[in-house]
Structure formats: C-alpha cells, structure tokens
Amino acid sequence: MAEQSGDKTYDATPHRRQQAREKGQVAYSQDLGSAALLVAAALILTGLGPRVADTAARMLRRQLGDVGHLRSTPEGMMHQLVEIGGAVGLALLPIFGLLMLSAVAASAFQTGLLFVPNRLAPDLSRLSLLQGLKRIVSLQGFMRLGFGLFKVAVVSAVSAVVVVLRSEEILNAGALSIGGLAVLTGEVAVQALLWVGVALLVLALADFAFQKWKHEQDLKMTHQEVKEEMKNLQGDPQVIARRRQVQRQLALNRMGQEVPKADVVVTNPTELAVALRYDAEKMAAPIVVAKGAGVVAQRIRRLALESNVPIVERKPLAQLLYKEVSINHPVPDKSYAAVAEVLAYVYQLKGKKPPKPPRAA
C-alpha cells in the first residue's frame, strides 16, 4: 500500500547518496561547528593565554615604562605601533592557527572532505523575500527559534553557575592590584567560556544527530524511484531479463550440440556434470565441451543418456574440472592422469582401442 501511494520506504542507494553529496546535500549542524570552536578557543586560551598576556605586558612596559623612550615624531610613533603590533601579532599567531585548524576539523567531522564549487555560484532564488518568509514562518523555523531560546537559557544558567562558584573571589576583588584583577577577570571569563562551550557542544551533538536522521529521511526513495534508478544505471529490467533468457537459450542449444559429441560425462554424481571430448590426432589434451550444476547438470546427464555417451562418477575430478576449467578449454596438467584413466575405462566399455594419453603442455 505504501509503495502504491508513493511513500518513501526504501533506504537511499549508494548512487543517490553520491549524487546528494556532489550537490552539497549532507548532514550538517552549524551549532556543532560553533560550539566546537568555542570549546577549542577556551582550551587554547587556557594554554596559550598567559603567554600572550605576558608578551603584551612586557611590550607595554618596554614602550611606556620610560617616558624618555617615547618618540614624539609621527614617524617614531608609527614605528613604535608597528613594533608593538608585530610582537603581539606573533604571539597571537599560534592561537589563530589552532582556531583555524579546529574549525576545519569540526567541519570535516560532519561532512568529511567535501568540495562543492557550484555552491559558490550566486543563486538569485535565495534572495526571494517570499521564500525567506516561508522558511521563517514554518514548523522548522519555529523549532529553530525554540532551540535558540533554549540555548540562551542554557548559556545564562551556566554563566550564572560559574559566577556563583567564583563569587567569593569576585567579592574580594576590590583588594586586588590591577594586575591581579586582570588575571581574575581573565580566569573567570575563560572558565565561563569553557563551561558554556561544553554545554553548547552537548546540545550541538544532539542537533547533529537530528540533522543526520532528517537527512536520511530526506534521502529515502519510493519504489518507483528505485526502479527508475536501476533502469538508468543498469538498463531496463525487462530488456536485461530478455537478454539473459536469450543467452541461456543459446547456451542450452550449444550444449545440445556438444554433449552428444562428447566421449564421456564426469559427474559428482548428480550435482555436477562435465562433458569431455578428446581427439588424439587433433588435440594435445581433452577439452571440456559442457559443464553445469543443478538443473544444467541434469540436462547434461539426460542428453548423454539419449546419445549413449558414457557417464562416469568421479567426485574429485568433477569438482576440479567444474571449478577450474572453462568451456572449450583443455583440462589442467594435474588432472591428466585421472582423465586418462576415465577415457581408458570408457574405451574399454565400448570395446575400442584406448586413446593415446594426453600430452603435457
């Protein structure tokens, strides 16, 4: 009933997934990237922040500690600003580099290595006011709004907890020096940043799981879509079935012509059947003219019985020839002795002179 109504009940095929990925349609949560970047920033500041602060303090002491050292000319002041900026920038470079790596890692975690240049092309349809209003005034839009308000509440609660935990130090901050007050402010800010980032990261992981589930639902296919994709990739199923039927009929016709000409049929005893023919004057070794398993093996046996072709049961030999020898190919060297024994037995039954043994290749 679901298939008739066109419901999407089939999981996406690998081809459909690849097409969606090439269009940039992947499970992605913007909140996860932002939260991961926030946590990374807090950890980086915890590790490298004191170094940057120390560098900035030393530079200020050097530039402002000695009034006589100050330069009053515009060129001198510009030189001092460049010197200060270069030193601080060099100290901040590792922080910015690690933040960039963190952003790339957060994106790669969600989508892998994905490059979609066509997404960079301008799309004027995205500037439609009506489409924008539809996105805002929709169930998904209201869900995003509710989730955003919930995140604001979480950020406020976590920040309040950090302030309460450090309340004693904050209340006694009046007795601290300017340097001590700056250190306390930095520690509280970084701690709040870390806790808020962790809370948002947990929410973002939940959002990413939801986005992944929604992406899977959007990729699902109807029965008709699956059929159309199979037709496009492999051809019309009816044509394929007809082609296989013709190939099967040709194989049966060839079998009907070759089995009556065979010298012997080796069986296993009923599961496998291999027809052999050997002409010592023209062939270096016996060749397999037909082989089959199951129903095909039964047909080979029936043709052999109708044509008075001897049937000999040799299980190991039948298994070896069926697995390793293709039709119209000679038997392998390691089976020469066993095949020669079978042929000698067959010629003995017919009262004929045994054939010459197969020649080694």
UniProtKB/TrEMBL annotation:
TM ranges are 32-53, 87-109, 142-165, 192-210
Q: Where is the composition biased (Basic and acidic residues)?
A: 1-24
Q: Which ranges form a coiled coil? A: none
Region annotation (Disordered) ranges: 1-25
Q: Identify its membrane topology class.
A: Multi-pass membrane protein
Give the subcellular location.
Answer: Cell membrane
Tell me the keywords, alphabetical order: Bacterial flagellum biogenesis, Bacterial flagellum protein export, Cell membrane, Cell projection, Cilium, Flagellum, Membrane, Protein transport, Transmembrane, Transmembrane helix, Transport
GO BP terms:
bacterial-type flagellum assembly; protein secretion
One Pfam family from the record: Bac_export_2
| GO CC aspect terms | plasma membrane
User: In its keyword annotation, does this UniProt entry include Cell membrane?
Assistant: yes
The principal localisation class reads: membrane
Q: InterPro entries given for it?
A: FlhB (IPR006136), T3SS_substrate_exporter (IPR006135), T3SS_substrate_exporter_C (IPR029025)
Task: Classify the source by domain of life.
Answer: Bacteria
Q: What does this protein do?
A: Required for formation of the rod structure in the basal body of the flagellar apparatus. Together with FliI and FliH, may constitute the export apparatus of flagellin.
Per its UniProt record, what PANTHER family does this chain match? FLAGELLAR BIOSYNTHETIC PROTEIN FLHB (PTHR30531)
User: According to its UniProt record, which protein family does this protein belong to?
Assistant: Belongs to the type III secretion exporter family.
Name of protein: Flagellar biosynthetic protein FlhB
Q: Which gene encodes it?
A: flhB
